[in-house]
Design a protein that fits this description.
Blueprint (H helix, E strand, L loop, with lengths): L2 H16 L8 E9 L2 E11 L4 E8 L3 E10 L2 E8 L2 E10 L2 E8 L2 E9 L1
Antiparallel strand pairs: 1-2, 1-8, 2-3, 3-4, 4-5, 5-6, 6-7, 7-8
């Protein structure tokens, strides 16, 4: 490999790494879910730090305030929060301004979807 070609590859590395950075989940979200017939609906205000950590405040089922924490990697994310002694864990993917995935709480599972805006 020539020195010029190697130099070009080294210069392109930051651009390649930028493309694998975590998708940004920052914003206001409306998230609707269900765990075995129990609705889990919330509105959230989420922020995402440079290290891809996620934090936010949510209003659960229109009445209970909770705070979430999590991480993002590429287009995937995972966050959780505890309410009434139960920890709900959301694992999903981001596509544009929509999210979808799975909810797990106390061994039970369900699905969710959400929209930013």
């Amino acid at each position: 490999m020539t020195r010029a070609r190697l130099s070009l590859m080294v210069m392109m590395l930051p651009l390649a790494l930028a493309n694998v950075a975590a998708a940004d989940l920052s914003g206001k979200w409306t998230i609707d879910g269900d765990v075995q017939g129990n609705p889990v609906n919330m509105t959230c205000d989420v922020t995402q730090a440079a290290d891809a950590s996620i934090a936010g405040k949510c209003l659960l089922n229109g009445s209970e305030q909770t705070e979430l924490e999590g991480t993002a990697k590429d287009a995937s994310f995972k966050f959780s929060f505890t309410v009434q002694g139960y920890t709900l864990t959301y694992t999903g993917t981001l596509t544009g301004d929509t999210i979808s995935g799975d909810i797990e709480v106390a061994g039970a599972t369900g699905k969710f979807s959400g929209k930013r805006g």
